[in-house]
Amino acid sequence: MAAFRRAVADGADAIELDARLTGDGEVVVFHDERLGRTAEGKGRIGGMTCRELRRLSAGRWFHEKFSSEKIPLLAEVLDELGDRTGVNIELKARIPAEERMLPDRTMAVLRNAGNPASILVTSFVHSCIRRIRAAGADLTCGLLLPPYRAVVMNPAALRKAFGVDYLVVNGSALKKTAVVRCHEKGLCVGEYTVNTPRRLQRALRYGVDAVFTDDPAVVGGFLKKTNPGSRPGLLWGNP
Hints:
The protein is α/β, with parallel strands linked by helices. The chain is about 40% helix and about 20% strand. Helix 4 crosses helix 5 (about 125-135).
């Protein structure tokens, strides 16, 4: 939560987070599949209960002053920040059961979340997005594409197959012609991960609709300084 608060303070229009299922079906915010790198403990997130995970520190690895940080529930993030910033929820699922359950459990959380300012649901696991759409959810959805898929992407086919609003691609494979094709088919384009002024300037030249960054203070400050009045639709912050 400290990282999300800092992203908002640094000027991000939205925060990006990763949603995973615990072994007892709760939706928590955690990037990695396993504990050990950014939280205490060992084992898979999906193999532990929410109560077990909540006993662990998710901040001590970074600095002792963050030792009280816990692995947050998605509901907690939305309750605290959802009415004053956009939230990009990336669904992370490893096995078929998670691919079926995570979209459903996420939808249940969102139905109880009041009125978030702006929600974008994305995933590299495209079956998760298809399930969100099949549920009739009136949400902005996007497909995350790895570099090799971005090179050969067919915007019309992807929009028809998944009913998405966004394609979010790695900038290493992004071409201006691809952005133009997406816009012609009514698709917005997001680019990850834009951490330098050079990458931001290119995103603006290409007409990218949203940028995802690890450092919203630096990227947002450069944008404000050099391109007043010209910016992507959302400056997604990924703390």
